[in-house]
């Protein structure tokens, strides 16, 4: 609320008074009516809070009694109604069968009695031969068949169902993707070097919607854009030697692209800064930060990991003249839930939860929005190569189903973890595999679900094609 300089008309009492502006409704109120307006807003907030509390209670009830879900109740009702229809239909046919079978049995019994009398007569007269015996046998077979298979009544299944079938429509089916194990080299792979078809210890990567790859070429102090299916890249930032001038970079570790204005943001680690490049114009966004990983969310916030202060900070895009907000770590180096130890790459999901590759704790932690502590979602069981362990993890990304993918650097593999599971699974790489990775560093997906891996010590970017 801000005070107006001159007397204006109050929205409630309609009198000329010193008024105060409400930013929410953009109306002017005198002091008395402003107090009442605040009370109305407070009452509305209380009502909203009650609604939220009631909804929380519903969630808890659903968790405790999942069988009470409204869809389960609909399925149960469908079952009851369908059974009632089936039972009624079955009863109708039973009555018809009983009526018909009674008539049939009476006819068969009459025939049977006639044959029995014939047998008695034959015995009495003691005058019979093979013809008589064959006739009696044939008649017995005939009435037996009529009894077991009534000729005038049978059951035929109707192709038109008389109950309404149901089906489930799932907007998102859990799918555990698989990738071809033999990767395709789609950038460099021509040995370590500074030519346009080479890389030198590549670090972070970014894949745009056209499958162009932006690479933080660490030891060449440059950012390279590798067009889809190109044989060589093109330098779009740095590449004129290691240095701290505005047009130079010093061991860049990560790069992201703002696809709205086509600018790139670089974690210029050696110069302790985050710098933006737009049409060859440079602007330092954040200074004096030991940056490693970058991420940007859909709300226009930039996230940066600081591997010295062991924290992740967030800035509103375009508002960098402040220290930012700590959103993960920031409690010195350690392995407690509220601490990090040399964080590297980061990922931010649709809910603004932050996934941090907590390198020297050999784990990935998830920090929900405004959380003071993280939860371990991968690793956290010491260094090792078991499926519940990581060894110096680096790149981390999360798919639409919340499955977490980690570049398990020292184990030369990429692992997939589902939150809450004690173990992960190897999706590509691992010791003894053909086309082996050598220090996988960063991960990314394209729109089709193909997996891209920075194969750092092989100085190349590998593409693992999804198996459809």
Automatic annotation (TrEMBL):
It comes from the Eukaryota. NHL repeats lie at residues 332-370, 384-414, 425-467. Keywords: Coiled coil, Glycoprotein, Repeat, Signal. Residues 31-65, 105-132 form a coiled coil. SUPFAM superfamilies: NHL repeat. GO terms for cellular component: extracellular region. Pfam families: NHL. The keyword Coiled coil applies. InterPro entries: 6-blade_b-propeller_TolB-like, NHL_repeat. PROSITE patterns: NHL. PANTHER family: PEPTIDYL-GLYCINE ALPHA-AMIDATING MONOOXYGENASE, SMP-30_GLUCONOLACTONASE_LRE-LIKE REGION DOMAIN-CONTAINING PROTEIN. This is Uncharacterized protein. It comes from Adineta steineri. The lineage of its organism: Eukaryota, Metazoa, Spiralia, Gnathifera, Rotifera.
